[in-house]
Amino acid sequence: METVGSESQERLQPLKQLLDNSKGFWRRYRKNRVAVIGLGIVILFFFLAVLAAQIAPYDPFVMDPGSRLQSPSVSHLMGTDLFGRDIFSRIVYGTRISLFIGFVSATISAVIGIAVGAISGYYGGKLDEVLMRAVEIFIVIPTFFLILIIVAIFGGSIWNVMAIIGLTIWPSTTRLVRAEFLSTKEKEFVTAAISVGSKDAHIILREILPNAVFPAIVNMSLQVASAILTESSLSFLGLGDPNNVSWGWLLKDALRSMRSAWWDSVFPGIFISLAVISFNVIGDGLNDALNPYLKER
């Protein structure tokens, strides 16, 4: 019976350790009250995105000429636009598109950045030099204008926009991960893994990466904000996807009525600002919670 009890305790040990780490992470994260507020705003946006069909009182695409440019009221919480479309409904559906673009673009960037940074930092030498020169080329080129040109050539569909943003913002993640690999690969546990004949893939993925990925996680939250802002800028310039409602596209539609209907541009602008600021302060909170030096305090 004692043997069975000890075996069950050993099996539960990883789960207990995970729970302890989660509690420690949240304890450190919630010390940054601004980051907690930002997380709450993002969670609210997620609910809006997931429940858009249930929350939006009107179809975001249906035009009603008889209701054009109505100011905020009980029937239209954020007013209507030049074509009589309910702005609140369009913002709710735009939340879904903007968050989707932000997270997919940041994920693409993170995958590329982590892979290139890990290979460059671990192997070093000429391979590192070649990869870093490629990173420097991307850094030197004005990213937004590069995205602008590519979208103008290949089209502004939602999938093109996500792919192009993700494929152009990865260098910052690469530099962070590379720096962590350069410092971590000299530590004793990595040397021990090499001495027992562990393969490179095992050392990179199981030994170094779990200790080097935290800066990339923090940077990913910042890149979500950057991707949302970039997509909004593209849509504002008319290079977004006209078949989907995004916050940036709402601003573009508001251009013609900006002077006569302030609500047409103010509310989408508020949501864009809240999203960008929230993801940035979440990044600060993640940095405080994941920083290994702060963990020891």
Cα distance, first to last residue?
A: 40 Å
- CATH topology heading: MetI-like fold
Largest sheet: none
CATH architectural arrangement: Orthogonal Bundle
Describe the fold and architecture.
The chain is mainly α. Helix content is 74%, strand content 0%. The chain has 14 helices and no strands. It is elongated, with a radius of gyration of 23 Å.
Task: Provide a compact summary of the structure.
The chain has 297 residues and is mainly α. It contains 14 helices and no strands.
Can you lay out the helices and strands and say which pair or pack?
Layout: H1 2-29, H2 33-50, H3 52-55, H4 87-123, H5 125-140, H6 143-154, H7 158-166, H8 171-184, H9 188-195, H10 200-212, H11 214-236, H12 247-253, H13 263-290, H14 292-295
Please name the defining characteristics of this protein:
disordered N terminus; 0% strand; 74% helix; elongated; 297 residues; 14 helices; mainly alpha; MetI-like fold
